[in-house]
Amino acid sequence: MAIPEFIREIREKAGNTLLFLPGVVTVVFDDRGRILLNRRADTGKWALISGIPDPGEQPAEAAVREIEEETGVHAVVERVLSVFTNEPVTYPNGDRAQYIDIVLRCRAVGGEARVNDDESLDVGWFALDELPPLGPIARGRIELALRDDPTWFAPAAPAGPAHRGYAAP
């Protein structure tokens, strides 16, 4: 996964300190109802298209940019599906990060799905009944995109000691 230059600059000063970062995750549909996925170069697993907004970039702008950079597909954002803080991750080099993901439903409006950068090993459109293996969080986000529910978010914990254990769709 390409590390944005501004993150490299922060890491030079902060080392492996836990960084709390924004992320955008997209559920992109084409006019046939298929979903755009990429097989990530860093994990080898199929995933929804995602990335980190640049400083000053709006989440929708970042989503459209990431989709095009990674897949060659032009898209528009239709709505916010969910907002969720993920568990912290530690990368092989020791860097630690925690992402607050803004998940967006998008619609393809042009371009051709292809590997368009070094972040993907493969890119493709998948019918809902032919999805490759995906984790429960990605599947939950796809389910949200298929419904017309309000934006999902983890509710605030009740007053008192902090409560955890909310499952992210």
TrEMBL record:
Keywords: Hydrolase. Transmembrane segments: none annotated. Gene3D superfamilies: Nucleoside Triphosphate Pyrophosphohydrolase. GO terms for molecular function: hydrolase activity. InterPro entries: NUDIX_hydrolase-like_dom_sf (IPR015797), NUDIX_hydrolase_CS (IPR020084), NUDIX_hydrolase_dom (IPR000086). Its cofactor is Mg(2+). Signal peptide: none annotated. It holds the Pfam family NUDIX. It comes from the Bacteria. This is ADP-ribose pyrophosphatase YjhB, NUDIX family. It comes from Actinacidiphila alni. Residues 19-150 form the Nudix hydrolase domain. The keyword Hydrolase applies. The lineage of its organism: Bacteria, Bacillati, Actinomycetota, Actinomycetes, Kitasatosporales.
